[in-house]
Amino acid sequence: MLGSAPGLSGRWERLEPRPRARMLRQVLHAGLRTSFHALGRFVASHPVFFASAPVLLSILLGASFSRYRVEEDVESLLAPKHSLAKIEGNLVDSLFPVNRSKHALYSDLQTPGRYGRVIVTTRKGSVLDPVHLDTILKLHKRIYQMQVTVPATGANSFNYSFSYLCLPDDKNVCIIDDIIRAMEEIQSARTSNRSVPILRYPITQLADGRQAYIGHQLGGVQGWGPSGAVRGPGTGARGEGVRSARALQLTYYLQARGGLMDRVASQWEKAFCAELQHFAALHPKLGLYPSTSSSLRTDFQFSSVLARRPLLASLGACGVLAVLCCSMRDCVRSKPWLGLLALLSITLSGLTAAGILNLTGATYNSTYLGIPFVMLGHGLFGSFEILSSWRRTREDQHVKERVASVFEDVMLRFSGSTMLHLMTLGLAASPLTNMEAVRLFCRTAALAVTISYVYMLSFYSSCLVFTGYLETGYRHGCFCRRVPKPDRLDSKPAWYRCLMYTRYQDEAQTTNPPQGVAHSHAHTPNSNLTHTHAHTHPHTVNNPAAHGHGHVANSTHAHPHPHTHSTANTDPHPQDSHLLLGCVRRCYGDWITNTYVKPFVVLLYLVYISFGLMGFLQVTQGSDPSALVAMDTATVLYTRAQQRYFSSYSPVIGFYIYESAPYWNASVQRDLLEYAKGFQRISWLEAYLNYLSDRNESTSQPRENFTHTLRHSFLREPQFAHFADDIIFAERGQGEEPDVAASRIFLVAKTTENKREEMSVLLDTLRRLSLTSRVRFLIFNPSFVYLDRYAAAVSSPLRHSLLAVLFLLGLSSLAVVEPLVSVWLGLTLLSVQFGVLGFMTLWGVELDCMSVLCLISALGHSADCSGPLLCGFASGRGDSRTRWVRVALERHGVPSLQTLICYSAALVPVGSVRSNLTRTLFRCLTLTAGCSALHTLAFLPTLLTFLPPSKSRGHRPDGEGQRQEVECVEMNDSTRVVDQITTV
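Below the sequence we write its predicted structure tokens.
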């Protein structure tokens, strides 16, 4: 702290003793501020280059949108990248590929590649009623005979039907669902006036004696109880007779080997959906809900299509409010164009980032919809901070000096918040992240934030230089027209005088300094100096914006002597013509620091923490990919129908024994039967053991006898022949019976409403069992790739980002004058993060990749809002806590409030998009803005009035009422008279 020594001349300075660490931090802090001061002068000296270069670069890179590509593989985005389920899936596909299942396909057993699927429901009655059954079989026939032409025109066009594209069995006949065969048997019996065969649920027996699982092909089933009573839906026992069913699901599997077959299969899927739409229009009594292998990808990317116009509306609403927030009653000091130019700077940086991604071959996905809001929050707060600092500079300084002072005051904090953004996003984009969607989003957002920061330093700062010259020339802030002199303005109409209202004084009206004023010989940067003196309060000298420097460039609280030549003579607070700043200075600052208001704010914070904890304890996983697609699409409608009618049973779980096991051993047989106990199952082993028992043969036989009977007797029976697809034999020596090298069993679990949670628990239970079992087995279902360690995969980037923030804040404490700023900022970020996580759960948002992306970006947004306020408060000395809280609110709370207003206006149109993804985005970002605003404008201003850091250090013993001498130096340049204040 610099101050005048008692009893000595004002030209001498005394350095008070400080700890060495604090001095090192001050030297580093002063060096960084000096560097930004020089950078500001350089930008202000070359404004044309820094304004034109970013625009040209954005235009050049914007031409790369011809290489724009959309991500095709949604599973790789939304499923954990490295998981045991994917390894298990590769092993399953190598042992039992889909094409090898010649006799039966289970709808959810393996990832089938290309397919078409439809759920048929009835408005009234059962799908097994004669009229509905005939209609469904007619639909099946139309789909079976449907043809597609590829290519659409030309001599080389061919017609492809389902019989050409389908998966064939060993007789080269298309494999169809077992429920179709059962319905054909029922229809044939009714036509020939025979007794209708009994259809059992969930496992029925077909006419050829084969057992078939139809639990996923019939839904909303009501069965007959043992005494003939009607049982409720899904309550039937194994093989119970079906009385009625409300829904039916059909699946048509396609071959997609090779580029041509894949294109044909893609066209067939489109024709499949069109045919179902046409058929539904002809049969209004049936409800049809189609789904294909490309439905999830199409509906996931459709969110971007729906959000195009709302994003443009967001930009327009934000632009209007940004103009209003930058406007003032004073037409010269008003900067409405800077609001639009701030949005233009953010838009140009986004265009540049997109061009770089296109040139590097990156793909686009719908999660990138959150990136514009990350850029918007960071860029708007930086621009409003720059404008706020500009208004605190001396209006009679040269534009270059004012820009340099703004850079010195703002850019160190803005660079710190940008570094925090890059740290959190960069670590989440590292290979440590196991979720590809999170990694790609954070990588792209980090690139966009970096370019936005560079454009803020170059493009927006050069625009500030141009508007500064307009202000120096007394030109209107909006129309750029020179404001007439007062004598000419008095003759104009009232509306014109209102439009040209300004408090600026023309230099011709300024008076010369009074004669006889004593001169001192303090060193100044210009040789043409005449000196006067004025008196200021101590806190003017200790301005945090000028801490550690020989001049006060951004002082707003100086009280000049009446004889001082200054524009403040007639207007002590010209910034009060800005509405928000006047409200904060005159009303809100005094109200929030009032002694009687503080207890209520503390109580509000306790309520905030309580509700946040309530939501935190109820956090649920959102591993269902359909929760991230557009509403009212085929995927959502199909998922709702499936949850309504087919939620009684879990997906088919493949129980794979992937090593040779002693199946003939009685203890191994008991273990395998025990593992499958409690499941609905189709097991070759259980059927084989029953077969041996029916033949009065022992189930415990030597290996050769066991395998010989299995191959030459059991698998040759017609009703058991389909089990040949479930067993892999490995040859031994010549003349020896082969071993059973691998086999599979199909299990289905009874489920309730929390189907996905139960599947996750079941997966963990069976995996733990596989570690202790003497039979080496694994279980698999395609949905396991989304469930397997999903909670750890989706939450690890958030934990890494939090650790990165805390590490960065600890490291930054070496570079800031007051280390407690880092402590307060870290606690604020944790509090905001805790509140957003808790409140989003109470609002119905699950923890999925989109909500985690918002939580990661919330760290940077809350740091933008609260960091400058904490720095402004902590750097002040020599006055009360309440006084410095009010000063910090005036200087940094107003930019936070302006950012909140514009950011909220930009979010409103997004909330109207009919998409689950944008709904999650809207809710999380709204909570982020609200929690950050609460901490910046309410919680922190209250808590800082009675919690550390202390304001006693550096306080002069002479008391606050003592005044210090300040020289007022008059410097002449080529255009006007410039006052510069220096401390002595």
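The CA atoms of residues 41 and 482 lie 26 Å apart.
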